[in-house]
User: Fold these one by one.
Assistant:
Number 1:
Amino acid sequence: MLGEPRADRIVIVGASLAGLRAAETLRAEGFTGSLTLIGDETHPPYDRPPLSKQVLLGKVAADRTGLPQRRRLDADWRLGVRAGGLDPVGKRVLLDDGADVPFDRLLIATGTRARPWPHPDEAALDGVFTLRTSGDAAALAARLDAGPRRVLVIGAGFTGSEIASACRERGLEVTVAERGPAPLVGALGGTLGELAAKLQRAHGVDLRCGVTVTALEGDGRLTGAQFSDGTRIDADIAVIALGAVRNTEWLAESGLAAGPRGVTCDAGCRAFDMYGIVTDDIFAAGDVARFPHPLFEYQLLSLEHWGNAVAQAEVAAHNMVSPGPRRRPHLTVPAFWSSQFGLNIKSVGVPTFSDQVVIAQGSLKDARLVAVYGYRGRVTAAVSVNQARSLDYYRHLIETAAPFPPAPGAADQRESPVPVPSDVPDPKLLSHGPTVALTGHLPDRRLTVVQPAR
Amino acid sequence: MHIVVDLNRCQGYAQCAFLAPGVFTMHGEESLLYTPVVPEEQRERVRRAVAACPVQAILVGEEAGTGAR
C-alpha cells in the first residue's frame, strides 16, 4: 500500500447513511488525511425510514429528516453531482460535471434507487410516484394532503405495505396490487404473509394478490389502472413500490465485480474485480454491497437494511485505515424493522434462508408472536410481531447455530409447536424485488432474478 | 440538534415518550415515531430521553453535512 494509511486521500461515493457513518468512523479511528464525500442528491445525508412513516402520515416534513453526525468530519462534501465512472488504474472518480477526484482509497456506498414503472409513458402521468428520496416523499405527501379519491400501491413488500398503512391511517381509500400470493411473503414467507394479508384487509385495504397491473390509464393525469384479471379501478395516485435497483451502472467500465446484484466484496468489505481478485484500495458498504456471510453458508448477501448500512460502513472504514492483521470481518446478524397497521415487525437473521418456520411464542390470532425460521435443522432467523423484547434471545440462537426447532418453554406459547414449511417464494413471482438477496449456489433454490446488463 | 433512533435496538420501553412527548410518540403498542429535527425548547427534554433510554438507541448530534457545498 502506497502512502501512510492514516494521512492520504479517501473518497466516499454515496453521501447517505453508509457514507456518513463510514466518514465518522474514519475520523474516529484517527484518519487525518483528506476526506471527500460525493453524493448525487443535493441534500446532506438524511434518514430514509421515516419517509414512508412519519412523513406520509404528515407528522414530519420530508425535508426534516436530516441525520445527526457523531463528530466533526472536516470533509469536502460534493453534493448534487453524480459519479459517472471510476478509473481504477489512475485511481480517480470521474464526475458527471467533468471533474475528477483522485483517491488513495475509495469507498463505494452508492446504494439503490427505486425501481421505476416499466412503461415510461405511464410512469410520466401526473399522479404516479415512487418513494425513495426526500423529494419523492415531499411530492407524495403533498398529494395525499390534497385528499385523493383512491391510492393504488403496486407491490406489497415493506415499502408498499407501509405506504398503504399510512394512507389508511389518513382515511384514504387504498388498493394494493401484488403479483405474489400475499404481502411481505417474499421477505417473511407464507405464514406471516397470510397474517399480513388478513391485517391489510382488516384495516380496509382493497388487497389484490396474484394479479399484476397491466396498464396505468390517463391522459396527462392518472385516472385508473387495469389488472391482469380483467378488472379495473379508478385511482388518482399510484405509488410504484417494486423494490430497488442497485446504483452500479457508473462502475460498468471499472473492471470491478459490479452489476445488477451489487458490488461484490469480501467479508472485510474489499471489492472484487471482475476476475474474482480482491482489490486492496476499493471498498464497498451498504445497500450496494454484496458480501459473503458465514451464518448463511458464505452465500453472497445483499441487504437493503438501515442497520447493515451502519454496521458495514463501520467495518469498511476501520479496514480502510488498518493494516491487514488488524482488519475485521463484517459478521453482523442482519436485522430490520417495519411499522405498519399498528404493528411493530422486527426481524433478525435471514428469514428467506429457511425451509421451515414455527410460531415459538404468542399467536397469529393475537398478532403478537415470534416466528422462528430454520434451515436444515438450525435456527437462521426470527421475526417478532409486537414482541420485540424477545428477539435478542433468538439472535443469540442464530449466532450460535442452535438446533431448529428451538426448545419449547416460552410461557406464552399458544400455537402448535410443530414447524411448517416456510414457503418463501421465488422472487420472480413477486411484484417487488427482494430486500434481502441471497445469490450463492444452492441447487434447489433461486432467490434472485438475474437481469442482464443492457 | 438532530436525532436518529436505531429502531433495531429500540425495544419499545417508551422512556423517551414519557420524557419528551413532544418529540417521541408511541404508535401502536411498540412502534416509535419521532421528530428528527428537535425544536429548541425540546432540547433539554431530549437530552434526558437520550440518557434514560435503557438500550441507548437514540443518537443525537448536529445535522450532518452542514456547511456542505
Number 2:
Amino acid sequence: MKTKILLKCAKAAGFAAYALFLLFSFLKGFEPGKKMAFNLSYFSLEMAKILPPAFILIGLFEVWVKKETIEKHFGSKSGIRGHIGGILLAGTTVGGLYVAFPVAYTLYRKGADLGVIFTYIAASAICRVPMTIFEASFLGIKFSIIRLSVSIPLVIISSMLLGKYLTRKGYTIRDGA
Amino acid sequence: MYFLYIVLLIALLVSFIADRTKTYRAIKIAFKKFTKILPAFASMLVLVSIILGLVPDSLIVHYLGESNMFQGVLMASFFGSITLMPGFIAFPLCGILLKKEVTYTVISAFTTTLMMVGFVTVPIEKRYFGGKVTVMRNALSLVIALIVAVVTGIFFGEILP
C-alpha cells in the first residue's frame, strides 16, 4: 500500500516537472521543449476528437448488444470465423491500439474468446482500412498486400495460442481501473 | 474521422428513438469508463510528446538511411516500437525513406512495429491486460513484425537473390 502511494507521488512529481519544463521551454525559447508542447497539444486534440465518440459507441454497444450474440460470433466456439469477425471489426476501428483496448474489454465482458480478442487488437493495429489505403498510396499496393497477407495468418495463430494459454491459466481482463 | 461521427450520430439517434432510458444508461457507462481510463491516457500523451520531442523525424531518416540492412531493421523496429505516429505523418516519412534508398525490408520493420508494438500505449494496455500480458503481446508483435520485414525483403528481392 505504501509503495502505491509513493508511486503516485513520484508520478505527480513527474507530471509537475514535465509541466515546468514545458513552461520554461516557452519562456526561454528552447526548441525541443517547444516541440514537445506542440506534440502534446496535437495529440491531446486528436484524443479529444476520437475518444468521446468512441466511448459513447462502446456504451451503446454495452446496453444494446446481447451477450449471446457476441458469444455466438466471437465466443470460444466460434473458431476461425470468430477471428475473421474480429479482423473485420478491427478494420473499422478508428485511432488504433488505444481505442482497441477499451473495446476489447467490452467484447470480453460480453463473452468473446480471449484468442479472438487478441486477434482483434492486433488487427486494429495493422488492418484499419483508411490507414491501409493511405499506406498503399505511399509505399505501393504490393507492399500492403505482402504486409497483410503475411501478418494476418501470424496474428491469428499467435492470438489463438496466447488465448488458449491464458484461458487455461484462468486469466481475466480488467476493467481499466 | 467523419465516419466515426456519422456512425455515432446515427447510432445515438436510433438508440434514442428505440429506448430513451437505455440511451441515457449507455452515455452514463461511456462517461464512467472514460473517466476511469483518462489518467492512463494522460500518461500516454506525456510519453508520446517526450519521445517524439527526443526522436524527431530527421533523426529517424538519418539513422535508417545510413545503416546496412541488418542494423537498419533493428534500428527501425526500435524506433517503430517506441514512437506513436498517426498514419498521415508516418507514411509520408516512409516515402522520404524510400527516396533515400532505404530498403522495403527496413521500412516494413518500421511501419509494422509502429502499428503493433506500443511502448507509449503501455500505460493504457497495462490497465486492462496487466503488465505480464502486455509484455507478452508486445513481444509477440515484435516477432511478427520481424517476420513480416524478412518476407517483405524476400518479395522485393532485397534478401536472397
Number 3:
Amino acid sequence: MRKYTKAFTLGLQNALEYRMNFLLILISCIFPILIQYFLWTTIFVSKGDSEVLGYNFNQIIVYTICAALLSKLVATGFEYEVSNDVKNGQLSKFLVQPIGYFQYRISSFLGEKTPQIIVVMLILFIILTSLSLFIHMETEITLARMLMFFLVVPISILLNFFISYCLSTLSFWLLEVWGIYHTFGLLSSIASGGIFPLDMFGATINRILDFLPFKYIVFFPINVINGKLPWDGIMSGVLMQFTWIFVLFLLSKLLWYKGMQRFESVGG
Amino acid sequence: MSQIWKNTRRYAYIYFLFLKYSLISLMAYRINFVFGMLVELGYIVIKLTYVYIVFRVGENINGLTPYNVTLFVGTYIIMSGIYSALLFFNFIKLPELIRTGDLDMYITKPISLQFITTLKSIDISVAVPNIIGGVIMVAIGWNQSHIEVNAANVIGYVGYLILGVITTYSIFLIPQMLAFWTVKTTGLTDLSNSLFDFNQMPMTIYNRLLQRVGTFIIPVFLLTNYSPLFLLHGLSRLEMVWGIAAPFIFLILVRIFWNYALRHYTSASS
C-alpha cells in the first residue's frame, strides 16, 4: 500500500509543480464562456421568450460556467504516457517489479486531481453562491445539492479515468495513437455535455447518448447542482455512474489482458 | 520595377519549394497526415454543434437566419484551415528559435528573415477537412440565404477572405515576437489563439464595445466576418474601406515591430 501512497504523492507534487499551467488552463475558459454568454443573450433578446430549449437565461449561464470548468477538471492525459510506456518498452519495468501498473496509474492520477478538485470546487462555490445571492435564480442552488455535487464530481473523475484507461490499451495494437486520443477527447467533450447541455440536442441524439457513459461525466453533475434533477433521479444517476465504472473496470481488465499478450517490450 | 518583379518571382519560387518539401515530409509520415485530418474533423464537429444549436433554437439571431449563421461558421472553418496550415506551426516555432539561438542559422541565409521564419512550415493535412467542410457550409449558407452568385459577390467574398489571411498573419505574429524579450510565450500564445474563436459566432452577437475593439484595436473580427457580412449587405461604406486598409496597416506595423524586435535578439548558447 505504501508504494501507492508514494505514487499518489508523486502525482500530487506534479500537480503542485505545474500549478501555473493549470491556472492558465482555467483562465482560458473565460473566452468560450464569454462567447456563449453573448450568444445566449442575443438569442433570448431575439426570441423574447423566458425559456429556450428548456432552459431559462440564468440556468444556461450557470450551465456554461460549470461545464467549462468541469471539463477541464475531469480531463485525463495519462493515456499519452501509457502509450509511451508501451511504445518504448518502459512497461516491462513495471512487469518485473512488485508494483501493479493499474494501481500505480490510478494513485498517481488521483494524486494529481486532488489539488485541482479543491481549486475548481472553491471557484465554483464562490461563483455559484455569489450568483444565487445577487441574481434571482429560478432554481434554487441549495446547500444540500451543492454537497451532493461535491460528492458526485470525484465519481465523474473516476469514471473518466476508466474510459481513458480502456482507451490507452489501443497502443498495444497501434504504434501511433495521438491523433485518435486527441479526436476522442474532442468528441467526448461534446458527448459529455462540456459545450452545450445534452438535452438541447433533441430526442434522437439523446437516445444514442443514453447508451454511453459520457453524460455522467459533466452533464449529470451539473444537473445535480442546478436543480434540474429530482433527488431520486440523482440517486439513480449515481448508481449508473458506479455501474459504468464497474463495466469499464472489467473491460479494461480484458483489454489489458489481450494487450499484454501482444506486448513485445521494444527497446526496453 | 523589373527588380521588384524579379524578387517577387524569386520569393514565389522559394515558397513553392517550401510547399514541395512540406508535402514530401507529409508523405514520409503518412500517419501524421491521417491524424492531422482526424483531429481537425473533431474540431469541425465542435464548430458544427454551435450551428446545430442555432438551428434547434430556430429563431433569427439579431436578424441573421440559421442559414446566414452557417455562412459565417463556414467562413470561420475555412479560415481556421488556412491559418493552421500556413501560419500556426511557424508562429509557435518562433519563440523556440529565439530561445535556442537557432535563429542564427536563418539570419545567415540570403533571404528575408521574416519570410523564412514565418512561412516555412506548411501542413496541408489540417487544411484539407477544414477547406472541404467550410466550402460546403458556405455553399449551403450562400444558397439558402438567397444570395445571387455573381462576379461582384464572389470577388467581394474571396477578396475579404484573402485580406482576412493578411490580418491573421499580422495579429497572431505580434504576440510571438514578444519572445525576443520574454523568451517563453506559451501562456500568451494560448490566450491570443483563443481570440480567434470569437469568430465562432457572427460578430453581431457581441455588444457595441466589443465589436469596436474587435474591429479597430485588435481586429479579430476582420478575419472571418467581413466576407459573409459583405454578401449580406451588412458592411457600411466606412467598414468596407477599413476592411481593405486595415490588413495593410497592420502588416506594416508588424514589419516595423519585427525590425525593432530583432535588434533585441542576443542569440543563445555557443
Number 4:
Amino acid sequence: MFTDRPTMKELVEAVREFLETKISPAVDKHTAFHTRVAINVLKIVEREIELGPGLEAQEHERLCRLLNHEGTLNELTKELCHKLRDGNIDNKDPAFADHLKKTAMGRLSIDNPKYSAYRKALETASS
Amino acid sequence: MAAPAEKFSEELTEIASRHFGRPVKIEGLHRLSGGAVAESWWFDAVIDDKRHELILRLARSSQSSPLYPSKETEAKIQLVTIENGVPVPKVYFILDEEDGIGRGYVMQRIAGETIPRKILRDDEYAQAREQMARQCGEILYRIHSVDTNILPKLAALKNSQQLEQLQSGYNAFGENHPMFDFAFHWLKERMPEDPTPCLVHSDFRNGNLIVGPEGIRAILDWEMAHMGDPMEDLGWISVNSWRFGNIDKPVGGFGEREDLFAGYEAAGGSVDPERVHYWEVFGTLKWGFICLIQAFTHLSGTVRSVELAAIGRRVSETELDLIDLLI
C-alpha cells in the first residue's frame, strides 16, 4: 500500500466527512437514510484498510496450521468449508473452534464492532 | 424528487378511483424509508369527504421468487388471517395489470411504532415490552391455526426442502463462510420430522410489529409466508439480529422464551423447545443467507443500491451468532 499522503484511508475519511457535514443535512429524509448507510459503508472501508492486512495474515497462518499444508487464503478457506459441510473435522478440536471464533471476531472488528454478540464476546474475554 | 412524486400521485389517484369506484383525492403521498426490495408509500385517500389512512405496498419488478409469495398472495393472506383474530392491517384493494405500476396492494395504515430500537428503549413502550413476548406467542398460534383450506396457494416447504433451498442458494454464490457450512452440517444431522403443515409467517420479528404503549397492534410483512413447521416462527423471533442489541432478552430483545411459550400454549398450541432451537439456528443461517442475497442483488446489477451492498457485510454478525449457538 502506498504511503503518500493523503493515504487511501485519509481519502475515504475525507469523503465520509463530506457526506456527514455537507450532504446529510441538505437532503430529503429518504436520501438521508441512504446517506447514513453510505457513511457506515465508508467506516467499514476505513477499518478494513487499517485492520484488514493484519487479520488476513493471521487467518492465513492459522489455516495453514489447522489444515496442515500451504495454499492461498481462498483455497484453504474453501477446503475448510468443504470439510465442515461434510462433517470431516473434529469439532471438539480446540484449534478448530479457536480459528472459527478468531475469524468471526476479526470480521466483526471491521464490519460492525458495535454488534451485541461481538461486544459480549470481548467483555467475556476481558473478565 | 418533487416531480416524480407528483406524477406518481396522479397515477395513484386514477388507480384508487377505479378500485374504489368513486373519485378519490390523494393527499400527502410519500415513500417510507427502509424496505430494501419492496416499497411502502404513505398516503391519505379522501373519498366523499371521508379520510382513509392508507399504505401502498409495491414491488416494481414483476419477477417472482419461488421462495416468496407475490404481493397479491400477501394481500390475500392478510385478508384470511384477520378473520382468525390475527392483528393485521385491513386490505382495501389489490393492484392488477391494468394499473401498470407493478404488483402491490393498498391497506389500512395502523398508527404505532415499528422501529425496533424505539420499541426496546423508549419509556412509552415500557408496559408494552412486559407483555409482548406472551402476546407474540398468542398471535403466533392464531396464525398457525388458520384454516388451511381458505388460504391462497402457498409454497409448502418440508423441513428438508427448506434446508436444501438454503444450501443450494449458498453454494450458487460461491462464497466461503466456514460457519455457514458448519451450521448446514449441524442442521442436517438434527432435522426434525415434518409436522402437519400450517401457515407460517416466516418473518415474524421485531421490526415487523406495530406497537403502541399497550402492546402489539399489528403484524406486517407477510412476504415470506409459506406452509410448514410452526416452530419455525418461534425460532425466528429469537434470532439475535432481531434483539437489536438486547442480547440477553431472547424474544425480539424484549422478552423471555418462557413467556413466548406460555402465550402460545395458553392460546391452544403446543411448543417443542428442541425444535424451536433447531429453527433458531436455521433462522440465524437463513438471515445470513438473506444478507448474501441482498448483496448479490446489488452485485449482479438487478438493483444497484448502497443499502443492499452494505447488508452483505452483515453476514459476519450471523457467523458469530452461529458460533454462540453451536460451539
